[in-house]
Amino acid sequence: MSTNVTPMRIDGAAVEADDHTSVFSPYDGRELGRVPKGTEADVNNAVAVALDRHRGGAPAAHERAEILDRAAVALTERHEEFAQSISAEAAKPIATARVEAARAVDTFRFSAAAARGLTGEMVPMDASSAGLGKLGFTLRMPVGVVGAISPFNFPLNLVCHKVAPAIAAGCPVVLKPASSTPLTALLLASMLEDDAGLPPGWLNVVTVPGRVANALVTHDDVAAITFTGSPEVGWGIRADAPRKRVGLELGNNAPVIVHRDADVALAAKRITAGGYGYSGQTCISVQRVYVHQDVADEFLDAFQAQVSELVVGDPADDATNVSALIDSDETNRVAGAVTEAIAEGATAVIGGDDVSDGLLKPTVLTDVNVEMAVSRTEVFGPVVGVARYSDVNDAFAWANDTRYGLQAGIFTNDLSLGIEAAHRLDYGGVCVNEVPTYRTDQMPYGGVRDSGNTKEGPAWAVREMTEERMVVIAR
Length: 475
Fold this sequence. Notes:
This protein is α/β, with parallel strands linked by helices. The protein folds into 2 domains: 8-250 and 452-474, Aldehyde Dehydrogenase, Chain A, domain 1 (3-Layer(aba) Sandwich); 254-443, Aldehyde Dehydrogenase, Chain A, domain 2 (3-Layer(aba) Sandwich). The protein is built from 15 helices and 21 strands. The chain has helices at 40-56, 61-77, 79-90, 94-117, 157-169, 183-194, 214-217, 231-240, 264-276, 296-308, 328-343, 373-376, 392-400, 415-424, 458-464, and strands at residues 8-10, 13-15, 20-24, 31-36, 122-123, 134-142, 146-149, 173-176, 203-205, 224-228, 245-249, 254-258, 286-292, 347-350, 355-356, 359-360, 363-366, 383-389, 407-411, 429-432, 466-474. One of its GO terms (molecular function) is lactaldehyde dehydrogenase (NAD+) activity. Residues 19-471 form the Aldehyde dehydrogenase domain. Pfam families: Aldedh (PF00171). InterPro entries: Ald_DH/histidinol_DH, Ald_DH_C, Ald_DH_N, Aldehyde_DH_dom, ALDH-related_metabolic_enz.
């Protein structure tokens, strides 16, 4: 057993604790390292440091942008190191982890661009007689200390989507990474200070248990919270911090419609990637497929062929597509959802509820309906359900019959239907001839209803982390 401890980072210093939390590989259970089990006092210390930096004033915009540019360069140079860290602690297949590390480089670059372009706007004061002789404009000012709470499934890039825009906006951050995947976040924090030149105290990382994180949420000196995770926790945070800015990116059960005029082979290929990438543990993983009855058999044949070729195994193996879920409780939960669906009439044409060597095989369910839990809830595992339709209006209705609303997709060669889908699918994002799992790091990304209340993407996140200040000058 390793006794290696990676300390918290507060005000640029390594911070230990009396107790520690072990970080284990979800795949083989080996201990990867340990982190301090921080306390509320550590949270308070980190917030005090961050508040001091905020009151002292942010570095100039060009300096913030240069820090982010240097971070992009450093991360590029250390790409494989970060990919290996992601793969080990999250059981993310190494090929997928490398993609995440590359995307994080883009997140830094687009955040640097956002820092350089952050500006207010002119106000036409003489549009009213009361404004004659006045010059009016707005400034965008840092909102203050940002409390960031990140999830396990993207231990690098989703941390970057919180930290990099905050740096661009001039906001100091207190980060609470996911308890199961804190090592990559701590590695990022040291890289930002040591390689990119981020001044101490602008990113403080506290490895506290989830119950202690509420001290960050309710702290009077934290101006904004950015959270990615489950709807239950996210909306609880919103309720606990009614006077703060609270940005939520939450769950989903992403639907895809495959119409009768679609490129079926393309749809099957992309839905396979979108449904089983990282074992379905993404909030925009394809979960529900509604396929027109005219092409349903063709689609299922192509889809089953694609899924059957997925390699299940060690995340460190370049050939692996699907590996372990984040822990055994999640594995059992997802297997239970499959068991329940089968008992209610669904058919497992590939996979099923058997767990072998701790791994749940990629599963394709047919004959699902909107009342089943695998349709109504977020499965967050390697399970895709398929249902047939004859009227596209039914497909739109089924896709919208959910409390979630992050992203949805449709495959069709009818441009008019694609545009109709963009208007009728009630989601934060709609993808035409692409799966809803698709995301680039510069686009606005966020949902409606239980899927969240704001948009990520550096240009949008930066605005969430600033506030407008009106300036009036009389001549």
